[in-house]
Amino acid sequence: MPSQLTIQTVQANVSLKEKTYDILKDAICKMNIYAPDAQLRLDERQLSEQLGISRTPLREALVRLEQEGLVNIIPRRGIFIVRKTKLEIVELIVVWAALEGMAARLATQKASNEDIASLRSMFPSFSAGDQPANIDEYSERNIEFHQTILKLGGCGLLVEMADQLFIHVRSIRTQTIGEADRASRSVKDHRQIIEAIEARDTELAERLVREHALALAEHIDKNVTYLD
After folding, report:
1. How many domains does the chain have?
2. How confident is the model at residue 15 (pLDDT cuts 50, 70, 90)?
C-alpha cells in the first residue's frame, strides 16, 4: 500500500466533478495514511495538473471529500488528508467490530455455500498459526477477507456504514499487520471464522469476528505510539 497518492487523469466523457471525486477517494482509500512517511498535504495545483482538469471541479470534489471527513481544508494552510488519533481509531474499530460481527451473523443465515467457500479460497497458501512469508500479499488478502464478510451479510445499509470507516480500518490494519505476532494470529483467527461461517454457527461466527476486530483495537491501545 503506497504512502502517497497515485492519481489517474480524468476522462473527458464523464462528469468532471463526479469522476474527480471518485479518483481522489479511490486514491486516498488505497493509500496507507498511517505510514510514517505518508504524504498528507495535498497540493491543489499539482492535483489539477495530474488529473488534467481545471481547479473548479477539483475544488468541488475536495469539498465533498471534506464533508465525508476524508480531507480537511484549512484556509491559508492547505488541504490535508485526515488521519485519526489513537483514541479515535480505537473507537472506530469498536464500531467496525459491531458491524462486521453482525455481517458474519447474517452470512451464516443468508449466504450461499458457494459464496462462503470464497472465503477459504482467499488463503490457499497460508496455514493456521504460520507467519505469512509475504506480509504485503497477506495484508491485501486480509482486507479483502473482511470486506467479503461484510458483503456476505447481504445488508446494503450495513456495508454502506462500514464503508465510511474503511479508509482508516484498511490503513491501520496494513500498518500493524507486521507488528508483534499479529500476522500469525490473524491466520489462525481467519481459519476459525471461516469454519464457524461454513458450519453456519451464528453465535460463534459473530463472536469470533467481533473478537478479532477488538483484538486489533487492544493492540493499538497498548502498543501503538505513532498515533499519539
Report:
1. 2
2. confident
123 and 169 share one domain: yes
pLDDT value of residue 181 = 84
Decide: 145 and 122 in contact? Cβ < 8 Å. Answer: yes
What CA–CA distance (Å, rounded) separates 121 from 112? 15
CA distance 115 to 149: 10
In this prediction, residue 9 has a pLDDT band, given cuts at 50, 70 and 90, of low
Predicted local distance difference test score (pLDDT) of residue 131: 64
Q: How many residues does the chain have?
A: 228
**Strand 71-74 with 41-42, pairing:** unpaired
- Does residue 205 share a domain with residue 168? yes
Any idea what DSSP says for residue 191? Answer: H
Q: Which residues contact 224 (CB under 8 A, 6 or more apart)?
A: 86, 176, 179
